[in-house]
Amino acid sequence: MLVKEFDYELPAKLIAQKPIPRRDQSRMIVLDRQTGKIVYSLFRKFPAFLNDGDVLAINTAKVIPAKAWGKNEGKEIDFLFLEEVEEAVW
After folding, report:
1. 34 phi, psi to nearest 5 deg
2. List of the chain residues with pLDDT < 50
3. Residues 81, 62, 69, CA angle at the centre, nearest 5°?
4. I need a surface site. Which of 18, 38, 48, 90 has the fewest CB within 10 A?
């Protein structure tokens, strides 16, 4: 699998700029892997999509704006900074 297989067009107007006042009103897309059917729903209905025996994993990682792109000797490179440090170490 290649990372470029995950590329897609996302119009800027569809990117949320701030959370909605009632978070349970946020939208979600659910894929039924058995049938391939796609359902558009609200997050407050999320529990209805869980079945006995399902496992729900919650990601509590915090996201910081820490990705940068550039070029080095004509090659594209990207940086992902994982943690903030108090002072430079070099």
Report:
1. -75, -45
2. none
3. 30
4. 90
